[in-house]
Amino acid sequence: MYNRRNVMNDNILGLDTTVSSLEYAFDLDHSSEIIKISNTLLSLIKHRRHTDYSLVQQVMNDIQHLLSDDFKVDINTYLLNFCTNAFNRGEEIYAHEYIALIKKMIKKELLVKNKILSQGKYINTLTFAIAIREMNWLRSFIKKFSKYLPQENRETIKMIDEAHIEFYDGNIEKASIILQKVKSQDPYLKIKCRKLLLQIHFEEGTYKLLNSELEAMRNFFYRNQILSEKKRVTALNFIKIMKALVNGDKVNLNQYKGKITLLDRLWLSKYIKKDNR
Questions:
Q1: Is residue 202 within 8 Å of 242, Cβ to Cβ?
Q2: For residue 75, how many other CB atoms are within 10 A of its CB?
Q3: Looking at residue 181, what is its pLDDT?
Q4: Gap between the Cα atoms of 191 and 263, Å rounded
Q5: CA-CA distance, 160 to 181, in Å (whole number)?
Q6: For residue 162, which of 184, 142, 187 has the smallest C-alpha distance?
Q7: Which distant-in-sequence residues (6+ apart) come within 8 Å of 132 by Cβ?
Q8: HEC string of the chain?
Q9: How many CB atoms lie within 10 A of CB 1?
């Protein structure tokens, strides 16, 4: 078995040894469906090619009637993680692939387990649906599946997500109205709200107010002891880039891969060209 977290982080150190051990231990003449699908998956992890990605899906389609639902969920989770990493590397086609996989899992009733939906899948679905402008489908998704998030802050999260959808769909005034209704003491939800408010100020051109809010947020992140170090750094990176945007300074977004959220990067890429150094 190859650790899923390493796969998600594109850490393939030692993978050749892992594959060799599997090949030695198992009969890879395709007599076993489990070995066949596992072999194609390992090839995808190792080579990161679209042909391998397509082959995993093809094999899955051919033998799905022989596989348990738990096994199907595992394979699809690897495919979703692969899409996320590929998109983060700049391969934008995988936003479409991610949403196609999510739709397939919904159709086959594989997305929700024990009335719980993974927050990672939920957040990435929001990001990639926005990326490919599947706004109406996303509204329906949020309405139907937000109820499977953890009970705590569920309604608040739903409101914040609805505000993001309206913002990215160009309905800035509507997004602002929804945001004003959000009340939460959770520091992470506060970050989401205040970051979206910064984006609204930027879109509306209220730069004086934006500068004031940027400084207030920077102080909030430094003072708050509850935030994890990773969340703090991610938020501060967003503040740093926003300040550069307002000041007209050049920014290289490639330097922030994995250091800001995918959704933030999606929005920032509208104003920061790839050749902006």
A1: yes
A2: 19
A3: 92
A4: 14
A5: 10
A6: 142
A7: 95, 96, 99
A8: CCCHHHHHCCCCCCHHHHHHHHHHHCCCCCCCHHHHHHHHHHHHHHHCCHHHHHHHHHHHHHHHHHCCHHHHHHHHHHHHHHHHHHHHCCCCHHHHHHHHHHHHHHHCCCCCECCECCHHHHHHHHHHHHHCCCHHHHHHHHHHHHHHCCCCCHHHHHHHHHHHHHHHCCCHHHHHHHHHCCCCCCHHHHHHHHHHHHHHHHHHCCHHHHHHHHHHHHHHHHHCCCCCHHHHHHHHHHHHHHHHHHHCCCCCHHHHCCCCCHHHHHHHCCCCCCCCC
A9: 6
The partner residues of 113 in beta bridges, in order of sequence, read 116
> Per the structure block, which two tokens stand in for 209?
């107010």
Contact 134, 99 (CB under 8 A): yes
Q: Which amino acid is at 6?
A: N
Q: Residues with Cβ < 8 Å from 125, sequence gap 6 or more?
A: 98, 99, 102, 138, 141
Please identify every stretch of the chain with a pLDDT value under 50, giving residue numbers as ranges.
1-2, 8, 275-277
* Residue in 188, 200, 173 with CA at minimum distance from that of residue 267: 200
Span 15-57, pLDDT tens digits? 666 666 665 666 555 557 777 787 788 788 778 889 989 999 9
* CA-derived radius of gyration, the chain: 21
Q: Is the dihedral of CA 131, 134, 138, 141 positive or negative?
A: negative
- pLDDT tens-place string over residues 51-84: 989 999 998 888 888 888 888 898 899 899 999 9
State the Cα angle at 75 between 72 and 80, rounded to 5°.
120
**Amino acid of residue 147:** K
Which amino acid appears at position 98 of this protein?
A: Y
